[in-house]
Amino acid sequence: MEDINTPLDPKYKPLTVAEIHDATRKRVSLITKEFKMGFDFLVKHPKSVTFFGSARTPEDNMYYKKAERLGYRLAKEQGFSVITGGGPGIMEAAHKGAKEADGHAVGFTIRLPKEQATNKFVTDEIMFHYFFSRKVMLSFAAEAYVYFPGGFGTLDELFEILTLVQTGKIPHVPVVLVGSEFWDPLVSYIKDTLYENEHNISKEDLDLFTVLDDEDEIVELIGKTPVRNGLRHGRHGELERDSASASHPFDLEKQHCVPCESGGEPLTREACEDYMDNISGWDLIENKRLHKYFVFKNFEEAMDFVENMADIADEEGHHPDFSVHDWNRVDVTLSTHAVKGLTENDFIMAAKIDAIETDIFSGKKLE
């Protein structure tokens, strides 16, 4: 038996608390960069349809052929970019059709220890390190979602999209289930068990998806969906904003605060919730204040953060309230005292403060 007092091999020495925190911050920085990279990429494809389905579907399968035809028609007739996970099976089929139509076959691929083959029809590719980042991009990218028969992954994506639509996190866009023979048993379970017997969903929830077999009907349904300007819905990244909305700028970090006069009107709850989509990790308190606390590696980092936040506050003429606790935590509160509530200035400052945090965590040298 090995003596427990035997010294550990030096290469297996335990991590220190500081090393664990440093690794966590680097991971947070990478996640932030990956989301920003993904949303920047999606801006290039403002009109898109996302296809889901089994990676195991062979070329001679009827669903493969149907996915190929739909990919072709949606790209050729409607001008949609066709987005998939970039792999084989149904993903390959949809991309094959889009490429044959001289359209965009967009692949959201994943970096794995054992290389995952990207199908040869991808024309525009972005690779992700984290599965959840990739999943967010697939879920928040499109004007319509098309589901072919698949396994756990396909069902996971389906119920996530249905939940996002049900809860109002994304608009009610077409969710098309292709192949009644495959989907009817699941639909029966949803109707009979979840709705009628257990009352776990409402009657309106049964309208969140459509089962179709006819390709003409699918193309017509998707073709009628409105195209949103700029990037769309969700709470997973700063760039999710309709650029046609002048009152809600696309990128708050690049905006500037404007003087507020006493007696003005604060933002409504609904407006505040819209703006919350553009900032990260802030709490909306009683619709009057924004609050967030920041934890840094050491006192020096915390002071760098405070100094840079003060510089930006002076430039913008809009000052947050903050306090420093322990040796590395900074609590920040934003509010517009002139209107006794929140204005766009508070959200602009929140976005700029988020950027400072990101720069510090990524090790970027701050002026």
In total, how many domains does the architecture comprise? Answer: 2
Structural class: alpha/beta
Order of helices and strands: HEHEHEEHEHEHEHHEEHEEH
The percent of residues in helical segments reads: 40-55%
Strand share of the residues?
Answer: 5-15%
Number of strands: 11
Across the major sheet, the strand order is 4-3-2-1-5-6-7
The parts where pLDDT drops under 50 for at least 5 residues are 229-250
Separate helix tally: 10
From the spread of the alpha carbons, the general shape counts as globular
CATH architecture of the largest domain: 3-Layer(aba) Sandwich
Radius of gyration: 24 Å
What characterizes the major β-sheet? 7 strands, parallel
CATH class bucket of the largest domain: Alpha Beta
* Mean pLDDT across residues: 85
Family: Belongs to the pterin-4-alpha-carbinolamine dehydratase family.
Protein name: Putative pterin-4-alpha-carbinolamine dehydratase
GO biological process, one term: cytokinin biosynthetic process
Keywords: Lyase
Task: Describe the 3D structure.
The chain has 367 residues and is an alpha/beta fold. The protein has two domains: 27-223, Rossmann fold, CATH 3.40.50.450; 252-361, Transcriptional coactivator/pterin dehydratase (Gyrase A, domain 2, 2-Layer Sandwich), CATH 3.30.1360.20. The chain has ten helices and eleven strands. The protein has helices at 17-42, 62-76, 90-100, 131-139, 152-166, 180-197, 215-223, 269-276, 299-316, 344-361, and strands spanning 48-52, 81-84, 105-110, 124-128, 144-147, 175-178, 210-212, 283-285, 289-295, 321-325, 329-334. The strands form two sheets. It has a seven-stranded parallel sheet, with helices on both faces. Strand 8 (283-285) and strand 9 form a beta hairpin. Residues 229-250 have low confidence and may be disordered.
